Amino acid sequence: MIKSVAFCPTCKVNLMVEHIERQKLGLCHAFQLNCSLCGKSIELTSSKEVRKGGNGRYSYDVNGRSMIAFHELGDGFAGMMNFCGIMNIMPPLNRTTYSDKITKLHDAYMFICQKA
Ligand SMILES: [Zn+2]
Fold first, then answer.
1. pTM for the predicted model, two decimal places
2. 19 C-alpha to center of ligand 1: Å?
3. What domains does the chain contain, in order, with CATH numbers?
């Protein structure tokens, strides 16, 4: 657990871990670690942030990987929505974004196949 290994380097005490609820993280989680003595605060996420281009929109790695997994399992967007509903978590992508990413994934597969 984060709590058992996260400590303030200045005060040498365990940090308080708080789960941050956000709507746009999808399957990624955000946490805030706070030192109760000096007030130092660190924010971190459970997945790497991926940004397309220098100033492009960002997403989280886990969301893209889950989209590929649901696609490869044959469950697609509906399967991903069912999974998120059962788990009571926000879906990582809407239908339009899912379709756009599947098109790009298909293009990448075709590119690799043509190279082989
Ligand atoms: Zn501290």
1. 0.77
2. 19
3. 1-46 (2.20.25), 47-116 (no CATH)
